[in-house]
Amino acid sequence: MASRRRELINEMKKEKNALDLKMNMIFLEYDLLSEWMERPSCSACIEEQQGLLEKLIEEMEQLKKEYEKLSNSLNFMKTIPDKK
To answer: What is the DSSP string of 26-64?
Structure first.
């Protein structure tokens, strides 16, 4: 039973790392988009930039929810003592 618990914790840690990577990539995209938006652009480009920005914000909100859920589950799993 204890080894199954450890397996679950390890799987959750891997998922958390994957979420961290996705969040970091979104931050990078956001930074690049912010730099792009500072340049003078046509109105069509501005609309495209705003759409991309909204999409990134939505993705980030979803990832934050997944991250919180996973972190809560991981913290809960750590509180359960190993059965020996």
So the answer is: HHHHHHHHHHHHHS---HHHHHHHHHHHHHHHHHHHHHH
The Cα 51–Cα 36 span in angstroms is 13
Would 12 be classed as within a structural domain? yes
- The model's pTM: 0.59
**Which CATH number goes with the domain that contains 66?**
1.20.58
Widest CA span of the chain, in angstroms?
Answer: 67
pLDDT tens profile 27-44: 888 888 777 777 777 777
Tokens 């909100």 belong to residue: 61
Q: Is the dihedral of CA 46, 50, 56, 57 positive or negative?
A: positive
Decide: helix, strand or coil at residue 78. helix
| Integer Cα distance of 84 and 76 in angstroms | 19
